[in-house]
């Protein structure tokens, strides 16, 4: 055990501590003196629990999680269904389960569950190239089932993350180039077709979304992104003021606790998914770039771990985690500079939120477990008792 502890990647631990410091300072900056004052202290407690999960999973052999992944997946889908039945609505999405004063977001947790399930199924392919009907379609269904459940809860951000994780794992899982190219072309044309239709047939599309499928919440997300001139002032308020704050930061920022927009409370719930606006306004382009550098170092270290692993389960897990983090980073920041729709996805390790922080730290613990146990002789996985 001691020998494994000594192998823990110190760079990753230091980067996580630095991200924790950035998160706590940023949350304090936008909550002190307000009704939310004290959130930074709660974030410290969440990070404490996160580091427990990180070190606990680091010392837990990831191969056992892979063996149990299909059972974990079934349990995870069951919890998502419970959310649809008994969940509470926050920020327009019915994505929270409450037990007394404690509440958590199962859709966040399921990202890690999906990575485990897909990795478990891929490793049983024994390094063979994926066939479309035998492999790609069943794997896609494993991701599409939770996608459909979470979309029904109006949680677009987490639902899309499942698709990104699927694409990342299919790519490393040796999907045929022809299948990958066809899939990307279909997805690309579908996206372009949706954007074109939304802009040029806005009234018809929004009427269908609001009255036929009951997704008026999505319109409030898409309008500020695609047709800002048609968006109501309420719908575009957050992203418009966030863009102003980011632009105001300039090269070096307005100074800690000195941001004109973020300190005047012009950006709703900025401590959550809009926290990047605080960093950009108060620390400028330099501060935002340093944050992205920390993310790059973290992802780079994980890829190095994947390359050194002696089995296939480890790299599958790490690529799934990397895909999850990259999507969250690009979607969160992109939404506030006008490149992506606002989906409510959090900025990993920075935004306020217990479920998000603990799950991200747990993901890093699994990546560290791959480092500590991935050099051992590969154990053959037993034939699964459950099939999809």
UniProtKB/TrEMBL annotation:
According to the UniProt record, what class of enzyme is this? transferase
What's one Pfam family the UniProt record gives for this protein? FTSW_RODA_SPOVE
Transmembrane region(s): 12-31, 43-62, 69-89, 109-124, 131-150, 156-173, 180-199, 283-300, 312-330, 350-373
Name a GO molecular-function annotation. Answer: glycosyltransferase activity
Keywords of this entry: Cell shape, Glycosyltransferase, Membrane, Transferase, Transmembrane, Transmembrane helix
Q: How does it sit in the membrane?
A: Multi-pass membrane protein
The EC number on file is: 2.4.1.129
- What's the superkingdom here? Bacteria
Q: Where in the cell is it found?
A: Membrane
User: PANTHER family recorded for this chain?
Assistant: CELL CYCLE PROTEIN, PEPTIDOGLYCAN GLYCOSYLTRANSFERASE MRDB
Protein name, entry field: Peptidoglycan glycosyltransferase RodA
- This protein's species is Paenibacillus auburnensis
Whichever gene encodes this chain, its name is: rodA
């Amino acid at each position: 055990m001691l020998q494994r502890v000594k192998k823990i990647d110190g760079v990753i631990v230091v980067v996580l501590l630095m991200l924790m410091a950035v998160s706590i300072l940023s949350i304090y900056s936008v909550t002190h003196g307000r009704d939310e004052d004290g959130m930074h202290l709660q974030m410290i407690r969440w990070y404490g629990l996160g580091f427990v999960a990180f070190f606990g999973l680091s010392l837990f052999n990831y191969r056992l999680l892979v063996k149990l992944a299909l059972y974990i997946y079934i349990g995870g889908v069951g919890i998502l269904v419970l959310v649809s039945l008994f969940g509470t609505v926050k920020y327009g999405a019915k994505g929270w389960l409450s037990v007394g004063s404690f509440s958590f977001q199962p859709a966040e947790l399921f990202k890690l569950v999906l990575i485990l399930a897909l990795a478990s199924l891929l490793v049983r392919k024994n390094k063979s190239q994926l066939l479309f009907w035998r492999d790609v379609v069943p794997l896609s269904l494993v991701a599409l089932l939770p996608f459909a459940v979470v979309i029904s809860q109006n949680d677009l951000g987490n639902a899309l993350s499942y698709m990104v994780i699927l694409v990342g794992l299919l790519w490393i899982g040796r999907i045929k180039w022809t299948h990958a190219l066809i899939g990307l072309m279909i997805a690309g044309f579908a996206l372009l077709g949706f954007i074109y239709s939304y802009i040029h047939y806005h009234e018809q599309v929004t009427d269908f979304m609001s009255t036929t499928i009951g997704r008026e919440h999505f319109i409030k997300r898409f309008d500020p992104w695609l047709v800002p001139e048609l968006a109501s002032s309420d719908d575009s308020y957050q992203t418009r003021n966030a863009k102003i704050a980011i632009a105001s930061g300039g090269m070096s920022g307005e100074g800690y606790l000195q941001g004109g927009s973020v300190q005047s409370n012009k950006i709703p719930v900025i401590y959550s998914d809009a926290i990047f606006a605080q960093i950009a306004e108060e620390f400028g382009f330099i501060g935002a770039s340093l944050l992205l550098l920390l993310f790059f170092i973290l992802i780079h270290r994980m890829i190095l771990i994947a390359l050194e692993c002696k089995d296939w389960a480890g790299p599958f897990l790490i690529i799934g985690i990397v895909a999850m983090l990259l999507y969250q980073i690009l979607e969160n920041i992109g939404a506030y500079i006008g490149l992506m729709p606002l989906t409510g996805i959090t900025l990993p390790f920075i935004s306020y939120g217990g479920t998000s922080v603990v799950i991200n730290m747990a993901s890093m613990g699994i990546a560290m477990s791959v480092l500590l146990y991935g050099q051992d002789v590969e154990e053959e996985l037993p034939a699964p008792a459950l099939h999809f």
